[in-house]
Amino acid sequence: MTSIKRTKREGLHPYVQYLMDSTWGYGRWQSEEGIPAVRGHSVEDVLGLPLSPWSRMGAEGTFINLSEQSVDDAYVCRIAPGGKINPQKHLFEEVLYVLKGRGSTTLRQGDKKPIQFEWQEGSLFAIPLNVSYQHFNLEGKNEALLLGCTSAPLMMDLFRNKNFIFNDQFVFDDRFVGNQTDMNGDGTFYEKYQGGLWETNFVPDIRSVRLQNVEHRGKGLKHVFIALSKSLMKVHLAEFQVGTYKKAHRHGPGAHIFIIEGQGYSLMWPEGDEPRRYDWKPGSLISPPAGWYHQHFNTGDIPVFHLAFHRPQTVASEGPRDQIEYEDEDRSISQLFEAELDKKGLKSHMKREV
Ligand SMILES: [Fe+2]
Fold first, then answer.
1. Are residues 41 and 104 in the same domain?
2. What spacing in Å lies between the alpha carbon of 55 and ligand 1's midpoint?
3. Rounded to whole angstroms, how far apart are CA atoms 227 and 202?
4. What does the alpha-carbon distance between residue 109 and residue 169 come to, in Å, rounded to a whole number?
5. Centre of ligand 1 from the C-alpha of residue 251, in Å
6. Predicted structure pTM score
7. Which residue, 194, 197, 272, 313, shows the most beta carbons closer than 10 Å to its own?
8. 259 & 339 share domain
9. d(CA 322, ligand 1 centre) in Å
10. Do 149 and 196 reside in the same domain of the chain?
């Protein structure tokens, strides 16, 4: 009888390496795009990243690939005053947040009449799957900056064919019907879904979205999930109060957290390691690596408000959410928090919890 020798291998399996070297995929596409790629676990200020001309888009941009995420990525795109991007269409999903400026987007689905909607700083929307789109900067003197999160890594590495990803003509009219009224900001609010889910195709201003209390995730925490254009990449908005912090938890890959308001830091660590600290402020983007514990702390004098992009929901999160309750956390977690508040003359509201 033949015995099978088991060996522990570090890094990529040779077959995966072969696929990456010999066929087109996300890594190859990214290098072909000719724009910078930012790596690491966080970006201090996505509005201040260096951008390069991006010929496919007809604009300027940079990729943001944090925490070696292989199911989704992020990017920043700058549209010059009065400018527009080249028309785009693709088989990966995309959620866009408007960092700066005012503009419009035209959607063309198959042979249906084009539809158009206007956006401004704070707007949130998704590009419906495989719908042709084009963004326009409506300001003659000011740039427009967009932050996108896409499922390009997953889709490209799965199908490994550029022509299919960018030139397939299939119309997903089960997802998006393509009426002008689809983009007017209406929707349905599901109160009981994981603490609240807003289903819509367009959010004119994320600050106006109703949040719900989700105390089981953290003291005074409010949040809401948003499902856009029946995309598999949902997002959530969360607010946590002055002098508080969220419970540590871990889950699968792909989360990208963008800080809208407030100041603080996150601790992130793989099980068994010491927590590592990442400071943030408005404009910061942070991505917890798959399976790492992470915990967010408000050390400022206003509530923290953030937007979180999620992985495509078909990617499993490796079991139920694993959360550390306040009473079970290491005492050093709250001691660090209190020391940081002390420096600013602020008080912790967590004492009863920890
Ligand atoms: Fe998380």
1. yes
2. 35
3. 10
4. 10
5. 6
6. 0.93
7. 197
8. yes
9. 10
10. no
Distance (Å) from CA 313 to ligand 1 centroid: 14
Give the Å distance between the CA of 184 and the centre of ligand 1: 30
Encode pLDDT of 274-296 as tens digits. 999 999 999 999 999 999 999 99
Cα of 318 from ligand 1 centre, angstroms: 13
CATH of the domain at 293: 2.60.120.10
Which backbone phi and psi does 35 adopt, to 5 degrees?
Answer: -120, 160
CA of 202 to the centre of ligand 1 (A): 24
- Pick the last residue of a domain from 170, 195, 220: 170
Tokens coding 276: 């590592």
Question: Distance from the CA of 294 to the center of ligand 1, in angstroms?
Answer: 7
Residues 326-345: tens digit of each pLDDT: 999 999 999 999 999 999 99
Q: Which amino acid does the sequence have at 310?
A: H
| Sheet with 102-108, side-by-side order of all strands | 115-120, 102-108, 132-137
CA of 304 to the centre of ligand 1 (A): 15
Q: Quick: pLDDT tens for 226-250.
A: 999 888 999 999 999 999 999 999 9
Bridge-based pairing of strands 102-108 and 293-298 is unpaired
Same domain, 145 and 269: no
95: CA distance to ligand 1 center in Å?
18
